[in-house]
Amino acid sequence: MTGPALEAALGADAVADVVRTEYGRVVAGLIRRFGDIGLAEDALGDALVVALERWPRDGVPPNPAGWLTTTATRKALDHLRREKVRDEKYAEATMLTDDTPPEPTGPVTDDRLRLIFTCCHPALAEPARVALTLRLLGGLTVGEIASAFLVPETTMAQRITRAKAKIAKARIPYRVPEQDDLAERLDGVLAVLYLIYNEGYLSSGADTADRPDLAAEAIRLTRAVRSLARGIGSPPEVDGLLALMLLGSARRPARIGPDGSLVTLDEQDRALWDAGLIDEGHALVRECLRRGRPGPYQLQAAIQAVHTDALDVSLTDWSQVVALYDQLLALAPTPVVALNRAVAVAELDGPQVALAVVDGLGLTAYAPWHATRADLLRRLGRADDASRAYAAAIATTDNPAERAWLGRRRETLGGPTSPP
């Protein structure tokens, strides 16, 4: 590829990179300025179209996110003019184009964190809160969000549309929440941050194996929430979520192999793990245990702590892992938790016992369910059944690293493995 075609491709790649890394910051700033989700999204969409036209020709600007913010702001003002809105609203929007940061009026001063708390208003149903914030803050597609929720894409699209309509109809303000609001909205905020991190940890899209920028943003925002939560008694689930993210991120350097496929926990080079993140995560887990108020995030973090405490997979305390999953399943009795528990059960009681549990879950649209079945079937010597299960897993994931790992496993049908 040479000449104009190459320049166009480079420009498109630059726009895609900015969307992946800066979408949440830009759209959050636009929403803060104009107080209108639809206007902010439409204006940013228009700005991205202009970027696709100009960047291949003129080059990528030194500050792409700033360029998009400025262009989107102009597009929003053009829209307001065309719609002939009230003079008062137009004058207000014009004043808001000043790039001077607003004076803080409450405990949340970060635009993206403010957006999370706003979208987690109690007037919205919890699934809608999470989905809308993932769309706005994480820049995830409707399909990616639907995959995270294990629901059809059309269902998720309707859910997001209804949430936007509810915000407009109820006139939910885009304001900094007061301290009393934080506790009421905290659970929804943590759920959003957890799913943003999960998308960064293992992308649901076909373009990249993971999104370290998204995972890092989730960690940054969770740290900010943790600082805020000191004012409402520092709920231990905040520490638990941060620990879970840190311990998962600590393993990232060892999770993708040279061939682009996932490297499972039992095969990872543990010397590549980030010792600093592990130490911080373990300290948070110990603090959670000291407080004695276990919750789902704390228990997941404790499970990660057991794994990252073992110098070799053979030293993993599987009985402790199963015991922690038993507690987690009591608090969060979901099929996904049951599936993860079954993986640990296989190490204690054997693959046949675990397979009976897995087969009873029926998560046919969930790639890890098929992958887990394939692993258990292989360990039982049922190669043909395992091959079919691997094929089903490949068909239900778009992630390139996951597909490569599954394909390699299907080809070899060798020794035992464990989920990534």
Describe the structure.
This protein has 420 residues and is an all-alpha fold. Among the domains are: 1-98, Orthogonal Bundle (Rna Polymerase Sigma Factor, Chain: A), CATH 1.10.1740; 342-420, no CATH class. The chain has 19 helices and no strands. The protein has helices at residues 3-34, 37-58, 64-83, 87-95, 111-119, 126-137, 142-149, 153-170, 179-201, 212-229, 236-250, 275-291, 296-309, 318-331, 335-349, 351-359, 367-379, 383-395, 400-412. It is globular, with a radius of gyration of 23 Å. The protein starts with a helix and ends in an 8-residue tail after the last helix. This is RNA polymerase subunit sigma-24. Residues 185-287 form the DUF6596 domain. Residues 22-84 form the RNA polymerase sigma-70 region domain.
Gyration radius, rounded: 23 Å
How far the N terminus sits from the C terminus, by CA atoms, comes to 36 Å
Architecture per CATH nomenclature, i.e. the level-2 architecture of one domain:
Orthogonal Bundle
Reading off the top of the CATH hierarchy, the class of one domain is best stated as Mainly Alpha
**What is the general shape?**
globular
Runs in which pLDDT lies below 50 for 5 or more consecutive residues are 1-10, 97-107, 415-420
Number of strands: 0
- Class by SSE composition: mainly alpha
Named CATH topology of one domain: Rna Polymerase Sigma Factor, Chain: A
Percent in strands = under 5%
